[in-house]
Amino acid sequence: MRDFGNVKRVVVKIGSSSVVTKDLKPNTENILAIISGFKKLKDEGIDCALVSSGAIATGMGELGLNKKPKDMALKQACAAVGQAKLMEAYNRVAELYGIHLGQILISHDDFQVRKRMLVLSETLDAMFKNNIVPIINENDAVSVEEIKVGDNDTLSSLISPMVGADLLVLFSDIDGLYDKNPKIYPDAKMISTVDKIDETILAMVGDTTTNVGTGGMKTKIDAAISATTSGVDMIICNSDRLRDLEEIVKGDEIGTLFIKDDKVFSNRDNWIIFKSNALGNIVADSGLEKALKDKKVSILPKGIKNVNGEFLAGSVINVINADGIVLAKGITNYSSAEIKLVMGADSNKMAEILGFAGKKQIIHANDLVVVGDDYYGRFVK
Ligand code: GLU
Question: Which helix (H) or strand (E) holds 338?
């Protein structure tokens, strides 16, 4: 048994292939399994939220399309139709169990702008306090590429720490993480517990990427990194175990458990690294690069060789080296135009060059997360 005695809030993610049947209708049987699982957990005082895919697939079914439309606008129209239909299916079942549901549709912008993220977080909090189960999906009907989270594995890993979840359960079309691709190697073994996502684990993912379903194993491992470094345990398991949701949350050894890190990012660092996209970058000279190898340091104009992109003060930007490798990510005190003017100069010349006296640091150490060679570099966009 896993030690889940303290779990008080759970986020469950279910993929399109489990929410929607082969003939593109809401999968009532699976929806029933989830909602009845939620009912049992709620009766035991455990809050639940669901991240549900399936909007586009359901919309395709409604509109009689059997192939995912290539046309972006039509795909979004499918999502608009399908999302409503899906919620109808969820509500029909939830009413039987006396559960109130609320729909939350999110795009990456809701994370990018910190104020919006806090509003979203308060809404979700109010839903839990008032016994409402959030049913969350990406706002596919209006999300264009630049503001898309992209996949619901990632979305659920961003939401989980935000709502203070203790556990994230990803239901998928695989049983868990295998030491090698089970479709190629019959002797592949499933790993029950991952204490730390290290190079060995990342190598296993490389091996299994080609043969797994929607989102793939890579997005699931990335979700696991983001969840566990944010203080959330995560389980990947097969959606044929949906009926066992209560047992999974109680600690039955089903699927692969990724144990949360003991060294967890602060909320602010978590936001910088996982939830915000960099709007540009500054190029560090070799001295600054060396300093950033070991620890957080404030970025001063002297260590900057170049600026790329256009951004305003307050934006999240990357600090890269001459080869384009991202060394750190942080919130800039100056715009790209201002940095262009002061780069290479001494901090005490800044006021004179800019014509106003601002902060001494381009990025303060407290507003910086060093990524370096660490695997967090995978998330830097
Ligand atoms: N948001 C998409 C949908 O509801 C699915 C994204 C995913 O499966 O990861 O159709």
Answer: helix 336-342
Q: What single-letter DSSP state applies at residue 343?
A: T
Comparing CA positions, the residue from 222, 220, 151 lying closest to residue 379 is 222
- From the first residue on, what is the mean pLDDT of each consecutive set of 10 residues in the chain (381 residues)? 93 95 96 97 97 96 93 94 98 97 94 86 96 96 82 93 95 90 86 89 65 60 90 96 97 96 80 87 95 88 97 93 90 96 95 93 93 55 43
**DSSP-derived secondary structure letter, 299:** B
β-pairing, 100-106 with 132-138?
A: parallel
Q: Indicate if ligand 1 lies below 6 Å from the C-beta of 140.
A: yes
253-268 exposure pattern, b = at least 16 Cβ within 10 A, e = fewer:
ebbbbbbbbeeebeee
pTM of structure: 0.86
Nearest-angstrom CA–CA distance, 284 and 306: 8
The answer to whether the CB of 26 is under 6 A from ligand 1 is no
Ligand 1 proximity of 37 Cβ (cutoff 6 Å)? no
Strand pairing class (316-320; 281-284)? parallel
Tokens of 25: 């209708």
Kindly give the distance from the C-alpha atom of residue 110 to the centroid of ligand 1, in angstroms, as a whole number.
Answer: 17
**Contact between residue 246 and residue 326 where contact means Cβ atoms under 8 Å apart:** no
Domains of the chain, first to last: 9-269 (3.40.1160.10), 278-379 (2.30.130.10)
Q: Residues 127, 159: contact at Cβ < 8 Å?
A: no
